[in-house]
What we know:
Layout: H1 5-26, H2 29-35, E1 36-43, E2 49-51, H3 52-60, E3 64-69, E4 73-77, E5 80-92, E6 100-113, E7 116-126
Parallel strand pairs: 1-7
Antiparallel strand pairs: 1-2, 3-5, 4-5, 5-6, 6-7
Helix pairs in contact: 1-2
Amino acid sequence: xxxxxxxxxxxxxxxxxxxxxxxxxxxxxxxxxxxxxxxxxxxxxxxxxxxxxxxxxxxxxxxxxxxxxxxxxxxxxxxxxxxxxxxxxxxxxxxxxxxxxxxxxxxxxxxxxxxxxxxxxxxxxxxxx
Length: 129
C-alpha cells in the first residue's frame, strides 16, 4: 500500500526541517534564506521576536549552533503544516566560549508554494531544567 498524500507531505516537511538544521550547522546562510519564507517570524523563548533578516544577522554572530531533537510531530492542513517537538539548542557565542544550552518545545509553521515547503514561523517555549 502506498503513502497517503498526508504522509508524503509530512515527510517533505521533515526533510525541509532536516535541511534547515543542516544549513544552521554549516552556517549556510544562503541555503537557510531559501528555506525561510520572506515573511518569516522567529519568536524566541525569552520573548524577543525577529523577522527573517534580523534572525539571520543574529545567527551570524555565533560560531556554532545545533539542535538536538527529541521528537517532531507534523500535522498537515493542505498547503500549511505545523510541527511541534522537544529539542535542545546548543549555541557557541564566541570562539573558546562555553556552549549555552536551552531545552525548548518548538512550534513551527510551514507553507507550501510551488511544490516547496518554507518555514513561515518559529516559536520556542523554554522547558524547566
